[in-house]
C-alpha cells in the first residue's frame, strides 16, 4: 500500500510513514476536487433515491463500451442503502450502456482486516451486484482515498471510457487514510479514469 511520509498538508491532514495519526474531518470540497480534477461529478441524493442516483449518473455520463466500477462504503449507516441495490439491481443493470463492463467494490476502514473487496470489471454485470450486496457486518469508519486507489489499481481496465462511482453517506476523513488526494488523482489521471461521488443525504 502506498503511504505518505511524515508531515502535514492543509488538504490531507496529518500522516506518518505507517499511517494516519490524526483524523481531520472533511467537507464536500474533497469530493468536488476529485471530480473536477478527473472530469467526474459530485451529486447529492436522498438515501431513498440511491438506485435512481446510480441510474442517473450512468445514463448521463457513460456511453457504449464504458468501464464502470461501483465503489460502496460499507460503514454502519449504509446497510439499508445496500439492500435497495439488491432489490432494484435489474434497474441498475438495465441502465448499463451497450458493450459496457461493470465492476463492484466495497470498503471500510483500511486499518482493519479484509477492508477492501472487489469483483473485476466484467460484461456479466451480476458479478458486481453480487459482490456489493453480499451479507456482511457493517462498520463505523471508512477510508475513501485508500479505497479509490485500490479500485483504480485492482481492476483490469480495457474500454476507453472509464468511471469509478463512489457511494457513501460520509465526507472524507483524511486521517483515516494512508493515501492522499493527490495520490488518488494522479493514479486516476494515469489511467484516464473519471471519479464520481453519490452522497446520500438523510
Short description:
The protein has 202 residues and is an alpha/beta fold. The protein has helices at residues 28-38, 50-61, 79-87, 89-95, 126-133, 144-154, 181-190, and strands spanning 7-9, 13-16, 19-22, 41-46, 66-73, 101-107, 116-122, 161-168, 194-201.
Question: What attributes characterize this protein structure?
Answer:
single chain; 202 residues; alpha/beta; Rossmann fold; six-stranded mixed β-sheet; three-stranded antiparallel β-sheet; globular; disordered N terminus
Structural features, described:
The protein is an alpha/beta fold and 202 residues long. The protein has helices at 28-38, 50-61, 79-87, 89-95, 126-133, 144-154, 181-190; strands spanning 7-9, 13-16, 19-22, 41-46, 66-73, 101-107, 116-122, 161-168, 194-201. It has a single domain (26-201), classed as von Willebrand factor, type A domain (Rossmann fold). The protein has seven helices and nine strands; from the N terminus they run βββαβαβααββααβαβ. A six-stranded mixed β-sheet has the order 4-9-8-5-6-7, with helices on both faces.
Map the helices and strands.
Elements: E1 7-9, E2 13-16, E3 19-22, H1 28-38, E4 41-46, H2 50-61, E5 66-73, H3 79-87, H4 89-95, E6 101-107, E7 116-122, H5 126-133, H6 144-154, E8 161-168, H7 181-190, E9 194-201
Parallel strand pairs: 4-9, 5-6, 5-8, 8-9
Antiparallel strand pairs: 1-2, 2-3, 6-7
Helix pairs in contact: 1-7, 2-4, 3-5, 6-7
- Sheet/helix structural class: alpha/beta
Look at the structure and give the mean pLDDT: 87
Poorly predicted ranges: 1-23
Distance between the termini: 33 Å
Identify the overall geometry.
Answer: globular
User: What is the string of SSEs from the N terminus onward?
Assistant: EEEHEHEHHEEHHEHE
Number of distinct helices: 7
Q: Strand order, biggest sheet? A: 4-9-8-5-6-7
Radius of gyration: 16 Å
Q: Total strand count, please? A: 9
Considering the protein shown, what is the CATH homologous superfamily?
von Willebrand factor, type A domain
Looking at the overall shape, the CATH architecture is: 3-Layer(aba) Sandwich
Major sheet size, sense and barrel closure: 6 strands, mixed
Helicity range: 25-40%
Which fold name corresponds to the CATH topology?
Rossmann fold
Amino acid at each position: 500500500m502506498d503511504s505518505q511520509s511524515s508531515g502535514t498538508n492543509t488538504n490531507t491532514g496529518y500522516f506518518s510513514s505507517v499511517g494516519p495519526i490524526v483524523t481531520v474531518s472533511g467537507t464536500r470540497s474533497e469530493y468536488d476536487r476529485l471530480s473536477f480534477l478527473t472530469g467526474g461529478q459530485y451529486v447529492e441524493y436522498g438515501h431513498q433515491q440511491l438506485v435512481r442516483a446510480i441510474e442517473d449518473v450512468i445514463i448521463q455520463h457513460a456511453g457504449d463500451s464504458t468501464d464502470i466500477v461501483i465503489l460502496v462504503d460499507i460503514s454502519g449507516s449504509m446497510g439499508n442503502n445496500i439492500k435497495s441495490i439488491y432489490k432494484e439491481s435489474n434497474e441498475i443493470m438495465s441502465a448499463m450502456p451497450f458493450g459496457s463492463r461493470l465492476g463492484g467494490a466495497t470498503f471500510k476502514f483500511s486499518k482493519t482486516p479484509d477492508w477492501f473487496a472487489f469483483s473485476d470489471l466484467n460484461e456479466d454485470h451480476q458479478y458486481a451486484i453480487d459482490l456489493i450486496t453480499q451479507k456482511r457486518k457493517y462498520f463505523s469508519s471508512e477510508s475513501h482515498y485508500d479505497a479509490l486507489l485500490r479500485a483504480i489499481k485492482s481492476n483490469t481496465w480495457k474500454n476507453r471510457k472509464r468511471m469509478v462511482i463512489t457511494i457513501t453517506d460520509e465526507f472524507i476523513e483524511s486521517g483515516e487514510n494512508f493515501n492522499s488526494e493527490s495520490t488518488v488523482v494522479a493514479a486516476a489521471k494515469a489511467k484516464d479514469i473519471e471519479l464520481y461521488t453519490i452522497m446520500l443525504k438523510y
